[in-house]
Amino acid sequence: MKTLTTGDKAPLFELKDQDDQLISLEKSLKQGPVLVYFYPKASTPGCTVQACGLRDSKDELTELNVTVLGISPDPVAKLSRFSQKQELNFSLLSDEDHAIADAFGVWGEKKFMGKVYDGIHRLSFLIGQDGKVSHVFNKFKTKEHHDVVLNHLKGE
Predict the structure, then answer these.
(1) Is there a contact between 32 and 130 (Cβ–Cβ < 8 Å)?
(2) Which of 126, 143, 131 has its CA nearest to residue 65?
(3) Is the pTM of this model over 0.90?
(4) For the segment 28-52, what is each residue's pLDDT rounded down to a tens digit?
(5) Which among 47, 51, 66, 126 is annotated as catalytic?
(6) 129 vs 28: CA distance, rounded Å
(7) Is 47 a catalytic residue?
(8) In the predicted model, is pLDDT for residue 122 greater than 80?
(9) Hey, what long-range contacts does 94-102 have (CB within 8 A, 24 or more apart)?
(10) pLDDT (0 to 100) of residue 1
(11) C-alpha distances in angstroms, 59 versus 55, 74, 152?
């Protein structure tokens, strides 16, 4: 697993969102920087807390011109239920074959309760309008993710 680092060119992608619409990183970057955050599984406690923190920070992120795209290996139908239940106000993208997670270097071996399996590592990437990774968020608690992102964006 070779994770992208600051300065790396982000892989361009098009994935379906919770509404079964194609979302393109390239088009999203035309509006400003994009926060691409990878999470393991919709509707789990940690992923819900992380998504709700970003939902509640939407106004501040919008003021900073940042688009949020969440990516998981969940199918579109599951993302739709998760988004509706949590009243999310940003796009959740389905990467069922984990090709984009592989391209960003966030798919790999994980260990949990004595089990070893492959899955998504919880990382976020701030992609600048030039298409390059400007920051990697890899040290945060799910409930503080939005604060870590906002503090970085504000230069704090």
Answers:
(1) no
(2) 126
(3) yes
(4) 999 999 999 999 999 998 899 999 9
(5) 47
(6) 9
(7) yes
(8) yes
(9) 94/15, 94/16, 94/17, 95/15, 95/71, 97/73, 98/73, 100/11, 100/13, 100/15, 100/71, 101/38, 101/71, 101/73
(10) 66
(11) 9, 26, 16
